[in-house]
Amino acid sequence: MFGGIPQEGDEETPVFVISVAAQLAGMHAQTLRTYDRQGLVSPGRTSGGGRRYSMRDIALLREVQRLSQEDGVNLAGIKRIIELENQVDALRARLTELTEELAAAYLAGEQAAAAAHASYRRDLVPLNQQTAMVVWRPKRR
Length: 141
Hints:
Elements: H1 18-25, H2 29-37, E1 44-45, E2 51-52, H3 55-69, H4 75-118
Antiparallel strand pairs: 1-2
Helix pairs in contact: 1-2, 1-3
């Protein structure tokens, strides 16, 4: 543990009880409950129903507080901002997936073309496609 924050897991792992999360976010625990009820922040839950906040949740709580206090955005506006940011993140992830699929398809196409070219018979000679006129004159006897 470093500075009271566990180092195991990732930023998505729900580990903090509401009192610790409130302290880390600089808010009152009741504010966190309100944000949860309004769908602004959705912490993980224990089997007994207790809230568990991740580092990502803490960062989101801080952003909600900043938008509210510094930018004067109401909670409905903040909820819409969060929804739109989540949508943008999902679209970026999908774009990355599609870009990777396209690159793989392009590579497969190039490999198929190379295999087709490699299968050509080498004993055939290409015909020159130029046109010419030949005049035939029989030999006189």
